[in-house]
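ugh ok fine here u go
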Amino acid sequence: MAWTAVVSLTLFIVVLSISLEMTIRHAWTRADKAITDNLDAVQGAAEEAMWTFNLQQATRLVQGLAGGEFIRTAILIDSQGDHVAEAARNVGQGDWLSRSLLTRDRPDLARNQTLIRQGTLDGEADQPVGTLALQPDYTALHALVLEQFIKAVWAVSLLGLVLTVSIFVIALLTTARPLRRLAATIREIGGSLNPGALMAGDLINRDDEIGQVARAFLSTVRDLAHRTQESEDAQTKLQNILDGSIQAIAVHRNFKLLFANDAAARMFGYADAAEMLDECDFRQTFANAADGSPEGFVDLLTRDDMDEAHLLTRPRLRRDGTRFLAEIAARKIRWKGEWAVQTALIDVTARVRAEQELRDLATRDALTHLPNKALFLEQLSFVLRDARPGRLGILFINVNRMTGFNDALGLAGGDELLRQIGERLRSQLSGRSVIAKFPGDKFAVLMHNIDDESDLIALAQRFDDLLQARFNIGGEKVQTTLSYGAAVWPFDGRNAEELTLSAERACVSANVRRAREVVFSDQSMNIEASRRYEIERRLAEALTNGTLEVHYQPKVRASDGRLVGAEALIRWPNADNTYISPAEFIPVAESTGQILDVGRFVIRQVCADQERLARETGLMVPVAVNVSAIQFQNDDMLRTARQALEAHRIPPSALQFEVTESATMDQIDEVIPMLAGLRTFGIQIAIDDFGTGYSSLSHLKRLPIDYLKLDRSFTRDVLGDDGRSIASAIVGLGHALNLKVIAEGVETEDEAEALRRLGYDEFQGYLFARPIPITEYQAWILAQRVTGRS
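structure:
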């Protein structure tokens, strides 16, 4: 009997040891599968959350995972190693010995899944977006092992007890009745898996062996019920994860929908997943290709060479027939024992639209919506591949006086003018011609299949005719002109950049020369353009550094030589004490708009010098400042003069403005109000270089002016009969209009005497003084005072 007890005890211990190991392995496998299933279920959503950097979604994901079975901590880590989202469940440390027994010599349950964003565009590589790290909950695993082991102990104990009792009963009683009763009772228990139903009976309350078996069997049934509930909970959690995903997920087999989450239902226009499963014909969610087949559909079930497919952007149809664009990933899966296709979709309609808008911003001018310079060069490069020599040309266009328009109309008005000009120019194009808006006030036209240069000239003429009609800008009637430069491939450039640059340089040349015709590119223009760019750059530095100078050339009364005024002349010194000629840099300044800054500098410097002269010499005579046509388009001139005069506390009569005859006649309607405003303020006006333009008497009478200045070319010819006649006519005209007449460029006593006899009021020229710096001008004034001429 003792031997039997020892054998029984040994067998019991062996069985318990085996049960413990099997329980641990079973629990470990179960935990491993649960963690892996959770990781697989959320991988797609995690990749999307990291790609879109959706912190809210990322937080929900890790919180959902941390609440899952056997997971203690869930962390989303970006590609730089920073934690984006983290969630952890508060758990105990567990018994060290039990944990050691569990973890010793077993695979680590921790998971670190690299998240990769599949490329969505042609040629776009897959991009790692981060890592999803899951740490196991060993406390839960310990609890499960303990629970299962206790059950195993109970089961083994029960089994041993049953066997022992059976053997004992058989041995002692040698009767089958208890066994039959036991079998009948087990069958009775087996007929119901509801623990409550068993507990309602009296079987478990029996004190005999039948009661013991009933109670053990009840425990087993409860364990089965618990496992069933755990499985249902896991399915519910997985469904919640799928429903919370922003990805639409659907499973279908031959277009029969087997599963869909709520995101898929919303994407395709259904109230929920149940409605979609009931009513959706998955074939109807595909747009038809040209051949009638479903566009973007890959039948994975019929292909042995492909288990998954990634489609970048494909059209799909909602329930109401509206189209949207989706990014699609499909793969084969086993569904209830058979192959099916799982499809994950993301609606990328908004993203594609945003990308197109960004493309437009990068290639279209925001003001005119015309192609910009980048797109123009791209199209030109493409066209040049098939172009024939001499049959492709570029007409480059500059809007003249745009700086003045911006100042007069404001930036918004200037933009509106450019927009309307762009509309008019575009209306004249046909065929494959392309017009583009370049930075600033420039346009460019690409013309295909021209016969010769006359086609470019004819287009420019059509543009000029179109611009004869004035523009209405904020109630103001505005008229503008254009300058044109042209280049023809391949004579003026081998590629798109060279050809466009040649046309632009020709346009700059046309603008400087104020040419009214199309100027075609040649090699000399490239040299001239480089020179002009250097002047523009250095002039900007001179204006910033204050290295420009103002020199003064005195004007004297013709009758007695007394000082009556001076002309302020801008001078630009070189490092070697020489001067850059105004004839070289003034045209560049006018074409770039720098003339406005030059004009402001001269006005302010003249006022400062006038204050100094009044203080140190006690004498103040008017100083004339030259004003270009561009400055007359800018209402800033009067404001600048007013501020400078007030800053130095000198009267407006200390200033005179000289404007060329051609500038006033070209835009007389705009000039008259400005001249009148200056004159009303107290600044006198002189018409410079008179006799070189085409003034009519009627126009001259309308101008609010005080002086006429005889051009120096007539002064040189005054000793001849023709020159004397012209000079006499001009002085007579000036006096008839109650104007004083000045002769400039007087260099000899004979010229001065001849002009004096003709009745000229004032002289200016080298005979009396050259243009001199302020210090020499001050000394000249003092010397004149000593001789009694000031």
